[in-house]
Write a structure and sequence with these properties.
CBS-domain, 2 strands, 3 helices, two-stranded antiparallel sheet, alpha+beta, single chain
């Protein structure tokens, strides 16, 4: 086993993302293909790698877990002005 070359066990069909790809697309790809990391490719050159740990860290940052406080999640209709209408509910009346 120690003499077994990587080429004999590596994935032949490589999945990858670009640096500008949304992080949720990368997460979906990793889940769909059950892989723990993706090469990040720009102009046919590997410029990095994103791993499950990177995805978890980004999600925790987006959710503000380390900042504490209160998180509010809204489900809004996909129509122009929906966010403005929702914001009016929280407007402070003076």
């Amino acid at each position: 086993m120690a003499k077994l070359p990587v080429k004999d066990v590596m994935a032949k069909e490589v999945r990858f993302v670009s640096p500008d790809e949304p992080i949720d697309d990368a997460a979906q790809l990793m889940r769909e293909y059950r892989i723990g990391g993706l090469p990040v490719v720009k102009d046919n050159k590997v410029v990095g790698i994103i791993t499950e740990t990177d995805i978890f860290a980004a999600f925790l940052e987006m959710f503000g877990v380390s900042r504490g406080g209160l998180r509010l999640t809204l489900e809004l209709p996909d129509k122009p002005g929906a966010l403005v209408e929702a914001a009016e509910v929280f407007r402070i009346i003076e």
